[in-house]
Amino acid sequence: MVVEVFKELLNAGYRQENIIQAIASVPMQLTDSPWTGLLWDAVNRRMIMSGDNRALAWRILIYGLTGDAELAGKGEREMREEWAGITGKSVRGLSLPEWEHVSRE
């Protein structure tokens, strides 16, 4: 998924060096937020391979790196609602991550 996001950001005009630097700020442990419940089943200690979960994780990664909901393909509220539906958490309790944003320059 990280490679797919990398390619998407390159195609959107972001510089390779900046993408690598920003991706380095993203938590990559599946047990870390926001991946628990989305890509990681903490109770059964295994990955969640659902296409819906993977697609949302991709959107969250794009949004968290760019702050660009249009590039992510859904608005912030829409992503939070989908995330709440997948994980069973309250929409109010979820906020989309914002890691180091990728610079286009």
Describe the structure.
The chain has 105 residues and is mainly alpha-helical. The protein is built from 5 helices and 2 strands. The protein has helices spanning 2-11, 16-23, 51-66, 69-72, 76-87; strands spanning 40-41, 46-47. A hairpin with a 4-residue loop joins strand 1 (40-41) and strand 2. Helix 1 runs antiparallel to helix 2. The mean pLDDT is 94.
Quick tags:
single chain, 105 residues, mainly alpha, two-stranded antiparallel sheet, 48% helix
What would you say about this model in short?
The chain has 5 helices and 2 strands. With 105 residues, the protein is mainly alpha-helical.
Question: Could you give the topology of this structure?
Answer:
Elements: H1 2-11, H2 16-23, E1 40-41, E2 46-47, H3 51-66, H4 69-72, H5 76-87
Antiparallel strand pairs: 1-2
How would you spell out the order of helices and strands? HHEEHHH
Total strand segments: 2
Shape annotation:
globular
| Derived structural class | mainly alpha
Percent of sequence in beta strands = under 5%
What Rg is obtained from the alpha carbons, in whole angstroms? 13 Å
- The largest beta-sheet arranges its strands as 1-2
Helix content: 40-55%
Separation of termini?
24 Å
On the 0-100 scale, what is the average pLDDT? 94
Biggest β-sheet strands, sense, barrel: 2 strands, antiparallel
Point out poorly predicted stretches.
Answer: none
**Continuous helix count:** 5
